[in-house]
Automatic annotation (TrEMBL):
This is 2-succinyl-6-hydroxy-2, 4-cyclohexadiene-1-carboxylate synthase. Pfam families: Abhydrolase_1. One of its GO terms (molecular function) is hydrolase activity. Keywords: Hydrolase. Residues 31-127 form the AB hydrolase-1 domain.
């Protein structure tokens, strides 16, 4: 994978295909493989860029300058500058949508179209923020994700009926188990705290271009329920697509539906 040095740390990214640029922003705790079906489909006619979050995949640790999701947006913009990409079609899932919307609001001239998947641009509800912070404390105390926590965290990302023996579920569970002490303490936990203590952007959503923005949501997404997507779509004035048979990582749970939705939207906006 190519690498860009941003804020003093190596940011690894995938760069495949040619054509209009599509930037894929990944979910917390997932690397570029969460987009495997989309990379294969989109790279046939687009240039697909997939940066890996700090501490995830092959990227280096969270830079000291990263204090909020605004910094993730700034770093993504720095990557686009290094690649000499003037405009992108941005697809952000979960935290990828959170920083993606911040990028679109701060540098609208760089965004050709914006697809927000399984994400929420309001503040984290206090009850879930406190719950996630309690999990981070357990991880910190153990310097690992303890075995019982694996079966608390992994199911959050999938629809309730997923086969827990499936390769998709088991591969993710093993990836969580594989995070080193250093990655957890230097990157994963501090980044998680920034994600779940993020500022509320809902009052800024009307500034997004309704005609070139699309919201997508897995119909069985537990951490980012449909009501949140409906609220954002109403504030932006854009379309909302419900993804059947999918939870939070809809890109992997119903990839054919997601690919068709993205390709259709890109055909009209890229």
């Amino acid at each position: 994978m190519p690498v860009a040095v941003i804020d003093g740390q190596p940011l690894h990214y995938l760069d495949e295909g040619t054509g209009p640029a599509v930037l894929l922003g990944s979910s917390y705790l997932w690397d570029r493989h969460m987009w495997a079906p989309q990379i294969e489909a989109l790279s046939q006619q687009y240039r697909v860029i997939v940066p890996e979050l700090w501490g995830h995949g092959e990227s280096g640790p969270l830079p000291a300058q990263t204090r909020s999701l605004d910094d993730l947006a700034r770093q993504a913009l720095a990557l686009l500058d290094q690649l000499d990409i003037a405009q992108v079609n941005l697809v952000g899932l979960s935290v990828g949508g959170m920083w993606g919307a911040r990028l679109a609001l701060s540098a609208p001239e760089r965004i050709n179209s914006l697809m927000l998947m399984d994400t929420y641009l309001g503040a984290e509800p206090e009850a879930t923020r406190q719950y996630y912070f309690s999990l981070f404390k357990m991880i910190e105390d153990a310097s690992a994700i303890p075995e019982p926590l694996l079966d608390v965290i992994a199911p959050i990302f999938f629809r309730p009926g997923i086969d827990r023996e499936s390769a998709l579920y088991q591969d993710f569970r093993q990836a969580l188990q594989g995070f080193s002490k250093e990655r957890l303490l230097q990157s994963i936990v501090p980044l998680g705290r920034q994600i779940f203590s993020r500022a509320d952007l809902l009052d800024q959503l009307p500034k997004l271009d309704a005609d070139t923005t699309l919201i997508l949501c897995g119909e069985q997404d537990k951490p980012r329920p449909l009501a949140e997507s409906q609220e954002m779509a109403r504030l932006i004035g854009c379309d909302l697509i419900l993804i059947p048979e999918a939870g939070h990582i809809s890109s992997r749970e119903n990839p054919d539906f997601v690919n068709e939705a993205l390709l259709t939207f890109l055909a009209n906006n890229a």
